[in-house]
Queue: 2 jobs
Job 1
Amino acid sequence: MHRGAFTAISFLLGALTSMASGYLGMKVAVFSNVRTTVSAQKPGWTACFNTAFRAGAVMGFALCGLGIIMLYVTMLAYRVHYPSPDQWVHLTECITGYGLGGSVIAMFGRVGGGIYTKAADVGADLVGKVVHGIPEDDPRNPATIADNVGDNVGDVAGMGSDLFGSFAESTCAALVIGSSIGVTGGWDAMVFPVIVSAVGIFVCLLSSFIATDLKTVKAENEVESALKIQLIATTILMVPAVYFVSIVYLPSSFDLQATVGDAVFTLHPWEATTCVAMGTVGGLIIGLVTEYYTSHSYSPVREVANSCKTGAATNMIYGIALGYKSAIIPVLVLSVVVYGSFTMCDMYGVALAAIGFLANLATGLTIDVYGPVCDNAGGIAEMAELDPSVREKTDALDAAGNTTAAIGKGFAIGSAALVSLALFGAFVTRIRHASNDALFANGVNMLEPLTFAFLIIGGMIPFAFAAMTMKSVGLAAMEMVMEVQRQFDEKPHLLDANPTERPDYDACIAISTKASLKEMVPPGAMVIFTPLLTGIFFGVTAVSGLLVGALVASVQLAISMSNSGGAWDNAKKYIEKQSPDSELKGKGSDIHKAAVVGDTVGDPFKDTSGPALNIVMKLMAVLSLVFADTFFAVNGGGGVFNLS
Amino acid sequence: MHRGAFTAISFLLGALTSMASGYLGMKVAVFSNVRTTVSAQKPGWTACFNTAFRAGAVMGFALCGLGIIMLYVTMLAYRVHYPSPDQWVHLTECITGYGLGGSVIAMFGRVGGGIYTKAADVGADLVGKVVHGIPEDDPRNPATIADNVGDNVGDVAGMGSDLFGSFAESTCAALVIGSSIGVTGGWDAMVFPVIVSAVGIFVCLLSSFIATDLKTVKAENEVESALKIQLIATTILMVPAVYFVSIVYLPSSFDLQATVGDAVFTLHPWEATTCVAMGTVGGLIIGLVTEYYTSHSYSPVREVANSCKTGAATNMIYGIALGYKSAIIPVLVLSVVVYGSFTMCDMYGVALAAIGFLANLATGLTIDVYGPVCDNAGGIAEMAELDPSVREKTDALDAAGNTTAAIGKGFAIGSAALVSLALFGAFVTRIRHASNDALFANGVNMLEPLTFAFLIIGGMIPFAFAAMTMKSVGLAAMEMVMEVQRQFDEKPHLLDANPTERPDYDACIAISTKASLKEMVPPGAMVIFTPLLTGIFFGVTAVSGLLVGALVASVQLAISMSNSGGAWDNAKKYIEKQSPDSELKGKGSDIHKAAVVGDTVGDPFKDTSGPALNIVMKLMAVLSLVFADTFFAVNGGGGVFNLS
């Protein structure tokens, strides 16, 4: 009874913190947008870069700090009820609600926000650029304001709650798996995962001074390297920092029960550090590979740009192929991290590696928020009809942010995969204990008919989810186009050089808002109810197949979709930078039009469906863990149908 | 020693039969193309439909018959060496080489053929339609002949060897898994899977008279239903036919050792029949769902067509989403068949269900060959400048073939998934016996670090494969466009109404030939070497993860890619049928141009990458099975690295 109530409280706290983070991010972004525009009017690059970067940092550090404080305070409060170390297993079980709360909000934030922003973005692009040939962010386009609002809703609030969800879940997974450490190692050892995240904040804080004070940005070409240095520096500094706290907080050796079989792992601080480090370094490698495939400084994106010469169709073929191919190295890195951390410290190692992936979350978030702030600063410059040099400046800042944000996505995807695996491990352990080793004692057999059947079904969920979210964006974008078209038709003077009529921005905002609220429900419901119904009707062997199938397919699809989208975006930007008499003809040419098609398709790929797939796998896993006891209560884990 | 030699001989025979089937198909198609054109000039529909349909039937029945005779004769020959029933396990092991041989050729046939035909098709479309606005199959387009040759190479020869591979593999899988039945049930019981396939031929033969004689095609709207009746009739007739032979050939009860654990299944003829029937009926359901998602008679394709109103980008988004979504019901059907057949007759049931999916192979092949024959008949009509009514007739025949071929794809995909699972089961059994129950006795644990790491890697293979093959098509198509452009530039009178110059068809054919031969090597090598190297270096637990991961991802991707491609193709055809003053504006409009982009992207989706993924999963599984003993020989299945 207590446990249920405590889990529910954790859930509410997680959900509230997630919402608070998103709200905070939007507030900061809105305040900083115009300031960045103003500082971009000053000479030099330092002022405007620092304004935008610091805006991102407010969000990054506030979110991480808030998340850790809430989590730790909740744990301390629950400790009053569960004072003795052998009760801490229950304490951590109640804490998983915090991760679940964060994830559920993350799901709706990411999907809803993604639909909102991309409906506006795609709609504005289709009408503005394709049909009427007016520039981006032109105030005469009625969808412009919706597009700008969308940047805040989707790219700041949605992304913030997404990453908060990742952080909360990975920490909770590590806590629940490592709860038995408390018995021999005490409270300090048990809360080690929280400490690692906390150390991450300090490391990020330290390295943020590199960008703002030590090695300030003085020229356009320094922007991207400044952001990249941030990520690399935090990764390098993390390893000794984690080793230091592992010696302080962890006992010199501690025991851990294996998930499968009866083996007991005897672990030491260096092994825990290695697992965290594998995650951090693995994340950086995945990030750099992502950058290679999505930045127009390298050959893959240039190949995509070249393929536009023969039209939109070859652009599509090349872009999709690039996305699929870009998953090869990240998947290999992931499998090395899985194998390494799993062999070294069992599921605890996997959970620590997941935390390692997110150790530089504060920096990642800083850069992620920095991007939309610069983007909107450019929009304000355009609408306020400032000198074009201001817009050029914010565009350059934004472009560097796009590339570096791609690196950040590497960390998020790696973390999501490992968190899901760790949560699945925790689920198996929970069922194993509940059934007194009658279930899962020898692991999870794939050659069980029910498991295999659900393995295929699990593999289908991410595809169905991507289909639903993509189509929502397409549908809402088409509505947006119709609305804008209607306004152009009804107000013929809207497009004059000095328009005498004002577009109805609110109508467009209403379309995005309505679409996002309505359309986020079906995919969200599918992700939430599939594991619940599977567990209740088909039992725990079915759930294990479902989770693993969803994990395998989500990883591939998430990486592919994000990178295809990023590559199309940057291929378009690459073509825009070419002069009209070069081979790629530059802006406004047929080649550019073909590239715009790719960019438009890529929008829901990279900002709605792709990143939301991270949440799909995690949310399904954490739900199964939280409801493990419920599943077990139905026919001893056999489910209502009690199929063998 | 003997076993190695026998396996090698089977391999060669399988490969030769596959090549012979492809060659035969091309010969028949080439002979029948022009005859179909000639009979299309006659009044009425019966003559031309029957000509094309019978051409397909020649290929369908020849291929199935040849496959079964070769297989059965080989088995009889080997029986001389392995006379006693307890040696038949070795006999069936040697026979797996036949399946492997068929698959390897199928892989290269499908990939090479797919690249050949789509390079020519996409290239011809891009230049002909998009750049110069000349109609399809216009003899002034230098790529036209390459396109027609490609239809024979890819859609007839490539597809024929693909389906021969499916047939050979599913039969071999059932033989190897059911080999122990021979001990109690004798030769007749053991060869039951071959008998089922043989019965399928007779059932298909019987029902083929419905189309050609009993209920002949008399009007345009009867074409599609005539073809559909073929598939439904064979499915319905198969069930009693299989039940009849199961009573005749199988003993009234027989024992089968379970793959996992020590259970022994006591089976009866009705259970074997049920497994076959589940496959046949499941295949039909998947086929009908495929038709629903790819025919323009239903709402999904019309939605895609409508999305073209806002341009190519929304068309792409809708088409991809449709493909992803179209996998939901097929996957559910597959998982029901997996669960049902697996629980009922263990892996033997799965293998029988896989044969059930392919029981109407002869009919499926007939329809599959019928399509390209009509397509090329239309091309000949265009080039011979016959009356436009001839072309309209062949186009109608072709369109019906496209839709019905989509139903056939359902059978192929279902069969591939189940064959792969059955082969994986056989692999596990083989390793289990070789290790005297030290390995896999309790099944295959997914929570083994190495297995899980390779599960993710396995999931990546289909994506990498799709990327490679798609890009090959894109690359070759771009070369083709350049070549055609060069010819248009150098011979300015090529496009005159009465051209005084002849295009250089050979140069275009050479591009397709060279591209297909060169580009099929890397993806083929990846699929062949990945399981071999995994088994040798990382051992059998790694292989099991790899195979299952590849299976899960391949199923989703194969269904999605095939259906997206089919939907785009038919959305374009739907728009072409509209009048210029209707909402969709019809041929030549901007809406139509947006639809052409989708169709062009869909070409490699549905005819190169998508269907080849069926072979990817099967080939990896059969290779692992054939080399199981080799893998076990390296450190007792631990591989060179001997990781735990």
Note: Residues 1-637 of chain B form one domain.
Job 2
Amino acid sequence: MSIRLIVTGGTFDKHYDELNGQLTFRDTHLPEILQAARMSEAIEVEINQLVDSLDMGPEDRQRVLESCRRAAEGRIIVTHGTDTMAETARVLGEAGLEKTVVLTGAMVPYAVQRSDAVFNFGFSVAAVQLLPAGVYVAMNGRVFPWDNVRKNKAEGQFERAGSDAANGAARSES
Amino acid sequence: MSIRLIVTGGTFDKHYDELNGQLTFRDTHLPEILQAARMSEAIEVEINQLVDSLDMGPEDRQRVLESCRRAAEGRIIVTHGTDTMAETARVLGEAGLEKTVVLTGAMVPYAVQRSDAVFNFGFSVAAVQLLPAGVYVAMNGRVFPWDNVRKNKAEGQFERAGSDAANGAARSES
Amino acid sequence: MSIRLIVTGGTFDKHYDELNGQLTFRDTHLPEILQAARMSEAIEVEINQLVDSLDMGPEDRQRVLESCRRAAEGRIIVTHGTDTMAETARVLGEAGLEKTVVLTGAMVPYAVQRSDAVFNFGFSVAAVQLLPAGVYVAMNGRVFPWDNVRKNKAEGQFERAGSDAANGAARSES
Amino acid sequence: MSIRLIVTGGTFDKHYDELNGQLTFRDTHLPEILQAARMSEAIEVEINQLVDSLDMGPEDRQRVLESCRRAAEGRIIVTHGTDTMAETARVLGEAGLEKTVVLTGAMVPYAVQRSDAVFNFGFSVAAVQLLPAGVYVAMNGRVFPWDNVRKNKAEGQFERAGSDAANGAARSES
């Protein structure tokens, strides 16, 4: 069951540029992450773009959609910035692909201490194999369908578009 | 959908003891991992034992089974040493629990560079939510049913008990 | 031979704020660094300020000078942003303190992969014990006197104010 | 002022072998450490041996001495296991070389969380440049002359051979 990994950048892959002191993009960290992961599943890495998702325009989301369409694999992970992940999920979801597409990302860059990047990536590798065809956002240890997800920017967490705000109990420890 | 996390130690949680230069157990790293993971799902951590799985006897596996039985949650992750993970999976599988139980672990300790621990844990958090009732081993980015899994010690990888040895192609990159 | 450590922030202590995606200050990482360092020398940590050194004004440098003056210890390390480290060194140097003061910092934050922070700090702990009274910048594995040092921003390296630019050979591998 | 770095292994360079679960040697991590350190000083790396210092015999210490003798550089750092570091220091010290030789190592491997390796290495790079000719052990943020140092194995710290045991106050925080 081979998987395609479409890389678009986002906080996940941000890199610290020591000359200007900014977080920017240079390359993807996914090959390094894959090596540590010791996966025996085949996985094909494709760098689609390396951008902050706040800078993505409609044509950038189309480019992600085209990669998903073109892919020989029926199982696709897209790494993506969190700020407009739900928007790209909507573009992919409305396209009605007969594939399982899981978007994931990170709130803290892989290259920074206490990042959520590797956890989220591992989560997505299971999710993409086990979910039926459809488009999903996988963040915060949860799977969200593309048409019912939003980022709560104040809390730095994803939630259902309708219900979670009124449903704080679901987020408390059992 | 709350999850119980039963910790048994294994390579995943090995700690370097600087006074004797040995890898040993002191505490679990799971709380630190959970904090970085930014999960919004409720997860209950239970330290069942902290041992090398080569040192586990039948009564130790029974203690894991008892924790699974007693758990209020229907979704359980067990962190476990890799050497006898398949054996414990068999004990849990034969007990016919009406729960989803996912065993995972690590080939390289969490506390060591280039560990697979966080990837495997993230993978398991998705798997335990998406798989039907049953007992599974989740390693190397794959899900194995408890009655068809073994560790290939020469390669340091899990494989199906019957077929994978003759099926090297499945492990090559696409 | 006890040492005072005066913390002023700088890239060394920058922290990734996951809610706004910016590198900012929250606290110093020095206690964590000291714990790993296993020092048996007594060291007193004082948080003087936590700022980007580009934002430091004359009164901020005076505050560093006052801390150096007030210190009971004759050996002082100042962690500082690299952009104006040479300027603060000049203020301290011209004050003619009868103490050994070593300024250090980092080009890559401690909290980011492949940081130079711990190396530079370890370097400074030796330098401050072995150098005679005076004010020094310790960066890139070298000691510079306060009146002959500048940051080469294009290369991200410190060099002598007069000679190094014309002296590339000194930086090549032997 | 160029420096030679003679690598002998020790805990500093121990590597986790995931197939047998043991800490062993495969290669040195010093090139990776040097890259992060951003040194502008020239430094020549020489792998002399990669061993646990408990396994070193007289001929192994002679090999270190021969490297020190042969070196064109007058400033030499030797990375070494802590258990017999004081013994090798004695062999080098009694040889009466007209060079500055600093032995250092680590209580926790570089590849393990919260290692002291990079701190100790940075400390040694300053010490080797600032100390007069002689042989020294640099550990725990202190410099010890070769003829007055021992490892206190119960505390996992180096101390003066004669006085420190009775001098606990020197190690307390000021």
Note: Residues 56 and 170 of chain D are 32 Å apart (CA to CA).
